[in-house]
Design a protein that fits this description.
The protein has a single domain (about 5-260), classed as Spore Coat Polysaccharide Biosynthesis Protein SpsA, Chain A. The mean pLDDT is about 90. It contains 10 helices and 11 strands. About 30% of the residues lie in helices and about 20% in strands. The strands form 2 sheets. Strands 1, 4, 5, 6, 7, 8, 9, 10 and 11 form a 9-stranded mixed β-sheet that branches. It is an alpha/beta fold.
Length: about 260
């Protein structure tokens, strides 16, 4: 089985323009991601999917592969679909272009799952346990609820499930919900079976997808099961300028990340 990793990288991000080129510890965010995905050693090919020729040139200068895609693509999935004829993988793994510290072990676990037991999986993503109430209620952090087989039932920017007051179980209005039940957050990594991306445009854009502005809901609304693997914790996503400040602080606290990523000029 061949696995192709793609990193959709949009230069004109609406909330944080050119965030993929902002420096984090002196290294552009996009380069962090490319290096870590390549460093995992589990993919047969790795490409950045960019929407600007200057970014394409930069990626090549860094020593990585890239493909130029249309700036009109509305999502990372759209960008992957637009390049599908140039990708050879049986599974296309979409790694978000704004998560510079994507966990290498998670990428290895994902690869192991696909290579050992892909079964009828059409779409696989990652989830992590939410232990922090602030994180739970942050709309920039996507939450997910799953069925008994671990497949996603729904994704939302809101807190799900809602914890209704139940004094007999110690659930009161002033209690931290993370102490009442298990909550799961979503990590923006998707492993698509090639055939799913090839028929992507036949899937109708649903109401929930438009309301929540979460591309994965399009698949659920069209009856495509989303399987999940578990990660230990959340990743740092660069959505707004303040996230970059937090990422800098995190890097200072974890200098091993720089060694782990082995940047070579």
């Amino acid at each position: 089985m061949q696995l192709t990793a793609v990193i959709p990288a949009r230069l004109a991000s609406s909330r944080f323009p050119q965030k993929i080129l902002k420096e984090l510890g002196g290294i552009p965010v996009l380069r962090w991601i490319l290096q870590r995905v390549t460093r995992s050693g589990v993919f047969d090919e790795v490409f950045a999917l960019v929407d600007d020729s200057s970014v394409l040139e930069l990626v090549h200068q860094w020593g990585f592969e890239a493909k130029l895609t249309s700036p009109d693509c509305n999502s990372g999935t759209d960008r992957a679909v637009s390049a599908i004829k140039e990708l050879s993988g049986d599974f296309i793994i979409n790694v978000q272009g704004d998560e510079p510290f994507v966990e290498i072990q998670l990428l290895k676990n994902l690869s192991k799952r696909l290579r050992s037991d892909a079964g009828d999986i059409e779409l696989l993503t990652a989830v992590y346990p939410i232990k922090n109430s602030e994180l739970l209620h942050n709309p920039n952090r996507v939450k997910v609820v799953r069925d008994c087989q671990g497949r996603a039932l729904y994704f939302s920017r809101s807190c799900i499930p809602y914890v209704r007051e139940n004094p007999s179980r110690g659930w009161t209005t002033d209690k931290d919900w993370t102490q009442c039940c298990d909550f799961w957050g979503h990590i923006g990594i998707y492993a698509y079976r090639r055939s799913l991306l090839e028929r992507y445009h036949s899937l109708k854009t649903g109401f929930l997808d438009q309301v929540e502005q979460l591309e994965q809901l399009r698949f659920l609304e069209n009856g495509v099961p989303i399987h999940c693997i578990e990660a230990h914790g959340p990743t740092l996503s660069i959505d707004v300028p303040n996230d970059l400040v937090e990422a800098e602080r995190f890097l200072q606290q974890h200098p091993e990340l720089r060694t782990e990523s082995t940047f070579v000029e």
